[in-house]
Design brief:
Blueprint lengths: L15 H15 L3 E3 L8 H14 L5 H12 L5 E3 L3 E7 L2 E12 L11 H7 L3 E2 L1 E5 L13 E2 L4 E2 L9 E2 L9 E3 L5 E6 L2 E5 L7 E2 L3 H11 L3 H4 L8 E3 L4 H8 L4 E2 L4 E5 L2 E12 L15 E11 L5 E5 L5 H9 L4 E2 L6 H4 L6 H14 L4 H6 L4 E2 L2 E4 L2 E4 L3 E5 L8 E10 L7 E6 L8 E5 L9 H10 L1 H12 L2 E5 L3 E5 L2 E12 L6 E9 L2 E5 L19 H6 L31 H6 L2 H12 L3 E2 L2 E2 L7 E4 L10
Parallel strand pairs: 19-20
Antiparallel strand pairs: 1-35, 2-4, 3-4, 4-6, 5-9, 7-8, 10-14, 11-12, 13-14, 15-17, 16-17, 17-18, 18-19, 21-25, 22-23, 24-25, 25-26, 26-27, 27-35, 28-30, 29-30, 30-31, 31-32, 33-34
């Protein structure tokens, strides 16, 4: 999508009539979709149970930053392996649409002990990483650690998703060149007290069959060991430009790359996906974004890099981009048409994070369509703040699987809420869609300005003010554990909003955080529950952790009733059903999480209802499309 940020020159000279007319043109021409919410699908008693049944599949409880630390502690296996980042993806597994986190196990030669850093080891032996770790976003073990669906070396899979080619010769850590096909075997992976070996047979690399080839590379690399070493054979190859960003940029230097490449498992192979943009700084009457590098940007290309052989594929995702059309004329064989993208690969494409952030940042002001309001900047929005770990920080966009209002099924979206400048209530919620024919469509759910809808900071404050939750968090902190507040998720369910915040514990001198509780806020209700206990329906009655708001409001602090101790603090969890008896069905996979969602659902069901609606719900929403071109008229 194009993003054009218009130049603002001497706004005081603009006439109201001209501004109103041109804002009307912008709204009429560039709005993707515009609809008024009819309010006929309120979250009431009839659909309450249905929503909570699917809720466990939608909650992303494992934060990527904390998950990276856990992966490193549990699955790096050896000093020379490194998890560099955790990526978000989704797969259909056993008939369920599941969001997962995965991270490749790359080789970090800089972590090899000093004595082992020889030319032979770096260039001929330690040539590649091995495998990946994959876990669902909403499943943890009894210890609060992520449930690993793909793990270990060689990769062991507990699901119907296999890695048949686990070797990574191209990645984010592969910043140096290596040689394959030499007289010595490559290190493959540790195997007991010994090491397994491997010989590269992929299509990547450049052949060096003769002394003349080796002389050319010796001069280019400044290493005459290529001439005197007896390790080279006629089958030897050199693999270089292996870092994926550098590799892509050398082929298409005219495209701007996204900051976040992500990994996917495609037909058993590990492949990197990178979003690429066409940009320009010469669009007429447009103000440069950020530091002035461009005033026009479109996500026109998805780049796929095979982690084993380095093959590059450039898939067109925006057939209307005039800049890309020009490059297609210059390089007719470089780009693959959008219609030829394999469906399996297309299912892993996602709306790019950088473009979404740029559009959201610009829309903070350009959502205003009234000329006077826009001129006076009366309704500016901002990104909300949240508590993460123990610090307050700006909320970043996040990927999540949700069922949007009026949608028939769950889908993978990139979302972010908005709050007014200098206020903490939520005024809008933006979602960019990624699945199927809905890819690239953006929806803005705007809340009524005359009613209160809690923003993330207000929910965080209510959590802090809840006596039972505050008491439990303080108790854990006094016992020598660090309490970590995870990302706050805002989940739309029908006409309502659910706020979800995971709570982690990390022992002192430890880098292994464990998920212990999940806080759910719905209207005036807040509950904190474990996600692990296997309770019977009789034991899953709602246990609100907060007294009624009127009681808190009228009782002085010293007269507050004593806090009821949370049963989970003293009662051990009931025995779990053996894993073998539960892992084969969707019912079994939901068993570990359903108790807390059932409980939260009953708490919501027992709230005060009026005309079939919860008293605290902020009535209707307005659905509006995001502007593709944000233009502010030149005087």
């Amino acid at each position: 999508w194009a993003l054009l940020v218009a130049e603002h020159r001497e706004p005081i000279r603009r006439s109201r009539a001209v501004l109103l007319a041109l804002l009307g043109v912008v709204a009429l021409v560039y709005v993707f979709s515009l609809a008024t919410w009819d309010g006929n699908t309120d979250f009431n008693r009839d659909n309450l149970g249905f929503a909570w049944t699917f809720l466990p599949l939608l909650l992303a409880l494992l934060a990527s930053g904390l998950l990276l630390s856990t992966y490193r502690q549990l699955q790096e296996i050896r000093l020379y392996y490194r998890f560099n980042d955790v990526d978000v993806d989704r797969y259909t597994l056993d008939g369920d649409y599941r969001q997962v986190m995965l991270s490749p196990r790359e080789l970090a030669y800089g972590q090899v002990p000093e004595r082992g850093r020889t030319w032979v080891n770096q260039r001929l032996k330690y040539t590649h990483g091995y495998g990946a770790v994959l876990s669902p976003v909403n499943r943890v073990s009894e210890q609060g650690l992520p449930e690993l669906w793909i793990k270990d070396i060689p990769p062991v899979s507990a699901i119907d998703l296999e890695i048949t080619q686990p070797r990574l010769y191209y990645g984010e850590e592969t910043t140096y060149h290596v040689f394959t096909g030499t007289s010595t075997n490559e290190f493959d992976f540790p195997q007991g007290g010994d090491n397994a070996s491997n010989r590269y047979d992929g299509a990547g690399g450049v052949a060096m069959p003769t002394l003349l080839h080796r002389l050319a590379y010796a001069l280019d690399l400044g290493s005459f060991k290529l001439l005197i070493s007896n390790y080279f054979t006629p089958e030897s190859k050199i693999l270089y430009h292996r870092e994926i960003r550098d590799r892509i940029q050398r082929v298409v230097p005219f495209l701007r790359l996204d900051r976040d490449p992500y990994l996917c498992i495609n037909n058993g192979r590990l492949q990197w996906i990178m979003d690429a943009y066409t940009t320009s700084d010469r669009y007429p009457y447009s103000e440069p974004f950020g530091r002035g590098q461009f005033n026009y940007i479109r996500n026109s290309v998805k780049v796929v890099v095979d982690a084993y052989d380095g093959t590059l594929q450039f898939f067109i995702t925006d057939t209307e981009d005039p800049i890309l059309k020009a490059y297609q004329e210059i390089f007719p064989n470089l780009f693959t048409p959008a219609a030829d993208v394999p469906e399996v690969l297309r299912s892993h494409f996602r709306y790019p994070l950088d473009l979404f952030a740029i559009q959201a940042q610009t829309y903070l002001a350009y959502h205003m369509q009234n000329a006077e309001v826009f001129y006076n900047q009366e309704d500016l929005w901002r990104f909300p703040n949240q508590l993460y770990e123990q610090d307050e920080q700006v909320m970043e966009p996040y990927y999540v699987i949700v069922r949007l209002p009026d949608a028939e099924s769950e889908e993978f979206v990139l979302t972010l809420p908005f709050t007014p400048v200098n206020k903490n209530n939520m005024v809008a919620w933006l979602a960019a869609r990624s699945d199927g024919d809905r890819y690239g469509k953006k929806l803005l759910y705007e809340f009524p300005k005359q009613q209160l809808v809690y923003g993330p900071q207000q929910i965080e404050a209510r959590i802090d003010q809840n006596p039972q939750i505050s008491q439990q968090l303080t108790l854990w902190s006094q016992e020598g554990s660090q309490v970590i507040r995870g990302d706050l998720f805002v989940i739309p369910i029908e006409q309502s909003l659910l706020y979800v915040e995971p709570i982690y514990l990390r022992a002192e001198q430890s880098e292994l955080p464990e998920l212990k509780r999940v806080i759910l806020a719905y209207g005036d209700q807040i509950v904190m529950e474990t996600t692990l206990e296997q309770r019977s329906p009789q034991s899953s009655e709602p246990r609100p952790t907060a007294p009624a708001r009127q009681q808190r409001r009228h009782l002085p602090q010293h007269q507050q009733p004593p806090a009821e101790q949370h049963p989970d603090a003293t009662t051990p969890p009931s025995p779990r059903t053996p894993r073998a008896s539960r892992s084969g069905t969707a019912r079994g996979r939901l068993g570990g999480i359903r108790p807390f969602t059932r409980r939260a659902g009953r708490v919501a069901a027992n709230a005060e209802w009026s005309n079939g609606r919860p008293r605290c719900v902020g009535t209707s929403l307005r659905t509006a499309g995001i502007v593709n071109h944000f233009t502010r008229p030149h005087p």
